[in-house]
Amino acid sequence: MAPRTTTPTTDGPATRDRILLAAASLLDEAAGGAVSTRAVCERAGVQAPTLYHHFGSRQGLLDAVVSHGFREHLAARQDREGGTPEDPVDAVREGWDAHVRFGLDHPETYAMIYGAVRPGEPCGVAREVEAMIRATLEPAARSGRLRVTPAQAAAEVFAASSGVTLALIQQPADGRDDGLSHRVRDAVLAAVLVDGPSSPTPAPGDGPAASAVALTAALDAADDPPLSPGERVLLRELLDRLAGG
Question: Which residues does the UniProt record annotate as the domain HTH tetR-type (predicted)?
Answer without folding.
Answer: 13-73
